[in-house]
Specification:
It is built from five helices and 31 strands. By secondary structure, the chain is mainly beta. It folds into three domains: about 160 residues, 3-Layer(bba) Sandwich (Glucose Oxidase, domain 1); about 70 residues, OB fold (Dihydrolipoamide Acetyltransferase, E2P) (Beta Barrel); about 60 residues, SH3 type barrels, CATH 2.30.30.30. The strands form seven sheets. Strands 2, 4, 13, 14, 15, 16, 17, 18, 19, 20, 21, 22 and 23 form a 13-stranded mixed beta sheet that branches. β25 and β26 form a beta hairpin. The radius of gyration is 27 Å and the shape is elongated.
Amino acid sequence: MAYTPGLQIKARTKYRIVRTLPIPGDVLVNAGARVTADQIVARTHQPGELYPLNLANLLKIPPREVMPAMQYQVGDSVHSGDVLAISKGFFGYFRKNILSPADATIESISEVTGQVILRGPPIPVQIDAFVAGTITEVLPNSGAVVETNAAFLQGIFGIGGEQQGRLKTVTDNPRTDLTPELITDKHQGCILVAGRKIHGDAVARAREFGVKALIAGGIDDQDLKEILGYDLGVAITGSETIGLTVIITEGFGQIAMAQRTFELLQSLDGQMASVNGATQIRAGVLRPEIVVPLLDSELVEEAAARVGGGILHVGARVRLIRDPWFGELGTVSALPVEPQELESGSRARVLEVRSEAGEKRIVPRANVEIVSD
């Protein structure tokens, strides 16, 4: 008997998120404070961009002559286009000027290598709370922990990073596609929920009208490639700069959203939500998330309801969650007892899946999750 997890869908849970800076900085909130999703909780500055210039080569002079040629010294600030150095030339003629490539500070001048290092202005970095809630812990010089009562849902795949906006359901059932005509200028700043497949041209229209995120059951591989402009492969997602976030709850293709997922999102229509499309399917699983803080103060039921999850058995509907068939749906057709050798040469317990297209897949049991009816 084998248990496998599924995507989580919680109508009510205690949601907790740790918000930290990449390097030490200033924390702007106190424990016990109420915060909004877009409120900045910590900030810092990363070192600016480096601009190395080999002035000895550029001026065609020995490294020891770079220092006399410099018009500025270590610690001086320069602006883009300022003259950094001037060569002596030949009897005062044929002088050559080297201009600063950016606004920067001179960090070092080497008389050994003839290289000058410029450092650009510090880069501000700040993190928001992501969800409306309460600061339950302050992490000195690093960040804070935010907690809230919330509805919490996971998707199977997403692109784009964190967004906040008001949920708006634009289809009346989980079997209707998200097409361009369903998106209007009234949806600016919203997170749109549809039932089945997101059409590629709907993404373009959503960007045009300033939609924050799209949530639906499925999407075609080709549409995804056209949206991104490249083949995504199996990289970690979440850093795409396409102007909005896309979260898929079921898989690739024309797949209707699970009924209970759709009904929960539909019941939350009009409420503020936070989403993150970041996905990782190798070296640990990272799921895209939809978080809707609850406005009431009722006690939270900590037990998780799940879309899927349970005991594997012949006839169970499953979703493949690793390449090369990531997102594909099928039915368990056999559960061999003995471990089998995989293409990698390792041995693992496997199962046989009959895909919806009728093809047989042999995959490790860890590479599937059960899908609810």
